[in-house]
Amino acid sequence: MDKFVISGWDQLNGKVRIHGAKNSALPLLAASILAEEKVVIRDVPNLRDVRAMVKIITELGGTVIRSSEGMQINTVHLNSGTIPKKLMQEMRSSIVICGSIINKIGWVKVSPPGGCAIGNRPIDLHLKGFKKLGCEIFEKNDEILIKAPKHGLKGAKIELDYPSVGATENVMMAAAQAKGTTEIYNPAKEPEIQDLANFINALGGNVKGAGTEKITIEGKQSMQGTDYRIIPDRIVAGTYMLAGAITRSEITLTNVVPEHIRGLANLLEQCGVQVIFGEKNVTISAKNRNIVSPKHVTTQPYPGFPTDMQPQLLAFSCFTEGTSFITEKIFDGRFNHVPELRKLGAKIEVKKQTAKVTGVSVLSGTVVEATDLRAGAALVLAALGAEGVTVIENIDHIERGHESFDEDLKSLGANILRIPKNQITHLSNENAY
Ligand SMILES: CC(=O)N[C@H]1[C@@H](OP(=O)(O)OP(=O)(O)OC[C@H]2O[C@@H](n3ccc(=O)[nH]c3=O)[C@H](O)[C@@H]2O)O[C@H](CO)[C@@H](O)[C@@H]1O
Ligand SMILES: C=C(OP(=O)(O)O)C(=O)O
């Protein structure tokens, strides 16, 4: 895999436009299968996971064309419900194809999905939801066959044991074309769920209550095409906000939805960072400011602090004055960045699901490894604030969720190079190549 070589300690300055959200693009691409006409989705980021989703849709008989006008998806001639194991393993979102395809084909054959290695990630809630809608599930070894009932899915009351994002999406898509009404209690409330509801409604569906305690879906048998722009990526925006805060810089992010990043903004303000919102942009300034630790932060389902920002927040905490306690409540194995941050000189102790971070005056560059997407992003942030040169290996993980990360950071004045795999890297504080 390629590497990033970052020479840290430079202040950042300038503007970056935030691209469309990965976690919206993936379910929306899947949901385009619901339509009986061509669909256009705009601002779909060019990411590894998006390319994997395109491969799946193509494998099933659909066509996807990317142009300056957005992504055109045509699944009118979709003819297969089998997703090969290799494609299932490429990402977590491969599983959300099930909900969109089950009404069209009548069955779907999959295997457990891949995704970031951040702990146990079962799909029991997805399968329970399908069963409630009338599906039969057959599991043998690694193969899962989901079969729709003969006369189609029927709306149902579904109470999720946990507000799982993926399970909520799968049930919403399957219920969108089921007969009658489905009510989802305890659904996920993330902005990406609201985006999916808006998209299904743009196809002619009827989804109400997304973002609240109960989602109600009136099934519609047929759905039309649409032209839809996805929401900006709040996790990418938050990552840049923390990059600015770590490097004690002033940067502006355009194409943001202020509401989606308000929680992080409030936290940064408490730490001493200035945050100024415009209608669709945000400027953060940490220039010449004394930045203190975020103290206690616990990840929670939305509107709580997002687990996908935890590694980056932990990296930021290393550069603050005082001690932070960061508790991970969503995934049971999401501290893979900790040993890598320690290699840079960070002072972090982990007990059960809480990391105690003691701010240090300086981190020093060395060779570290990105183990998953956000852990990798956290290492990039730490490297930007560290003294000397840091080499981050296995950056493919980072490129699952960040389009042109290095180019954007370069445009802000960061000293970052991308080194293709197999090219030998010599590490020295004057020059990295
Ligand atoms: C592509 C995408 O949108 N990924 C996001 C989605 O992942 P994903 O949809 O996989 O996350 P979930 O909300 O489903 O998972 C949250 C928790 O529920 C558990 N669980 C989930 C499903 C299930 O059937 N059984 C079960 O026990 C998981 O193990 C985890 O502990 O939401 C996560 C939580 O915000 C984010 O970190 C991911 O970036
Ligand atoms: C965990 C993540 O993604 P996925 O669910 O696709 O693995 C993430 O985006 O941080």
Automatic annotation (TrEMBL):
<keyword id="KW-0131">Cell cycle</keyword>
<dbReference type="GO" id="GO:0009252">
    <property type="term" value="P:peptidoglycan biosynthetic process"/>
</dbReference>
<dbReference type="InterPro" id="IPR036968">
    <property type="entry name" value="Enolpyruvate_Tfrase_sf"/>
</dbReference>
<dbReference type="GO" id="GO:0051301">
    <property type="term" value="P:cell division"/>
</dbReference>
<feature type="binding site">
    <location>
        <begin position="121"/>
        <end position="125"/>
    </location>
    <ligand>
        <name>UDP-N-acetyl-alpha-D-glucosamine</name>
    </ligand>
</feature>
<dbReference type="InterPro" id="IPR001986">
    <property type="entry name" value="Enolpyruvate_Tfrase_dom"/>
</dbReference>
<dbReference type="GO" id="GO:0019277">
    <property type="term" value="P:UDP-N-acetylgalactosamine biosynthetic process"/>
</dbReference>
<feature type="binding site">
    <location>
        <begin position="22"/>
        <end position="23"/>
    </location>
    <ligand>
        <name>phosphoenolpyruvate</name>
    </ligand>
</feature>
<dbReference type="InterPro" id="IPR013792">
    <property type="entry name" value="RNA3'P_cycl/enolpyr_Trfase_a/b"/>
</dbReference>
<feature type="domain" description="Enolpyruvate transferase">
    <location>
        <begin position="9"/>
        <end position="409"/>
    </location>
</feature>
<dbReference type="InterPro" id="IPR050068">
    <property type="entry name" value="MurA_subfamily"/>
</dbReference>
<feature type="active site" description="Proton donor">
    <location>
        <position position="116"/>
    </location>
</feature>
<keyword id="KW-0963">Cytoplasm</keyword>
<dbReference type="GO" id="GO:0008760">
    <property type="term" value="F:UDP-N-acetylglucosamine 1-carboxyvinyltransferase activity"/>
</dbReference>
<dbReference type="Pfam" id="PF00275">
    <property type="entry name" value="EPSP_synthase"/>
</dbReference>
<comment type="pathway">
    <text>Cell wall biogenesis; peptidoglycan biosynthesis.</text>
</comment>
<keyword id="KW-0670">Pyruvate</keyword>
<keyword id="KW-0573">Peptidoglycan synthesis</keyword>
<keyword id="KW-0133">Cell shape</keyword>
<feature type="binding site">
    <location>
        <position position="308"/>
    </location>
    <ligand>
        <name>UDP-N-acetyl-alpha-D-glucosamine</name>
    </ligand>
</feature>
<feature type="binding site">
    <location>
        <position position="92"/>
    </location>
    <ligand>
        <name>UDP-N-acetyl-alpha-D-glucosamine</name>
    </ligand>
</feature>
<protein>
    <recommendedName>
        <fullName>UDP-N-acetylglucosamine 1-carboxyvinyltransferase</fullName>
        <ecNumber>2.5.1.7</ecNumber>
    </recommendedName>
</protein>
<dbReference type="GO" id="GO:0008360">
    <property type="term" value="P:regulation of cell shape"/>
</dbReference>
<dbReference type="GO" id="GO:0071555">
    <property type="term" value="P:cell wall organization"/>
</dbReference>
<feature type="binding site">
    <location>
        <position position="330"/>
    </location>
    <ligand>
        <name>UDP-N-acetyl-alpha-D-glucosamine</name>
    </ligand>
</feature>
<dbReference type="InterPro" id="IPR005750">
    <property type="entry name" value="UDP_GlcNAc_COvinyl_MurA"/>
</dbReference>
<dbReference type="GO" id="GO:0005737">
    <property type="term" value="C:cytoplasm"/>
</dbReference>
<feature type="modified residue" description="2-(S-cysteinyl)pyruvic acid O-phosphothioketal">
    <location>
        <position position="116"/>
    </location>
</feature>
<comment type="similarity">
    <text>Belongs to the EPSP synthase family. MurA subfamily.</text>
</comment>
<comment type="function">
    <text>Cell wall formation. Adds enolpyruvyl to UDP-N-acetylglucosamine.</text>
</comment>
<keyword id="KW-0808">Transferase</keyword>
<keyword id="KW-0132">Cell division</keyword>
<keyword id="KW-0961">Cell wall biogenesis/degradation</keyword>
